[in-house]
Specification:
The chain has about 140 residues and is α+β, with helices and mostly antiparallel strands. It is about 45% helix and about 35% strand. It has a single domain, classed as Alpha-Beta Plaits (2-Layer Sandwich).
Length: about 140
């Protein structure tokens, strides 16, 4: 069966439990139509790039599924009809990556306070540019 990744954005005024309930609901829809959800992640409330239905924030959820296209179409149809879901994005992928998604990895880095070597690298480039300007 084809592999898919789905991102759902739900209204900001839902509780975390209600948002996670949406994940379970759409996982059940996929399972009832012959597919299975391999993994799911709740990314939390995030700020949107632009207002959607007068909302500035939304609950983000991520699902990885192994399902026939009919199951995915039904899940998307029900998500678009659901009052709490603002947006749905489904992408077909060749394979599922092991471990947490990129968004969860970034979240873990922010929580630990990791900044990496980016700050020092920019400073070195700036110094090099200043030396070149003087010459």
């Amino acid at each position: 069966m084809p592999l898919y990744e789905h991102v759902l954005i739900a209204r900001q005024d839902l509780s975390n439990a209600q948002a996670e309930g949406l994940i379970e609901h759409f996982s059940t829809v996929i399972a009832d139509n012959g597919g299975k959800v391999v993994d799911n992640e709740y990314w939390g409330v995030r700020t949107l790039a632009y207002k959607i239905n007068k909302n500035r924030k939304g609950h983000y959820a991520f699902l990885r599924s192994d399902a026939p296209s009919a199951a995915v179409q039904e899940m998307e149809r029900l998500a678009r009809l659901h009052d709490d879901v603002m947006r749905v994005l489904t992408v077909r992928v060749d394979e599922h990556k092991d471990g947490p998604s990129i968004q969860m990895q970034k979240r873990d880095e922010r929580e630990r306070g990791d900044r990496g070597d980016r700050g020092g690298d920019r400073g070195e480039r700036r110094e090099r540019r200043d030396r070149e300007d003087r010459n």
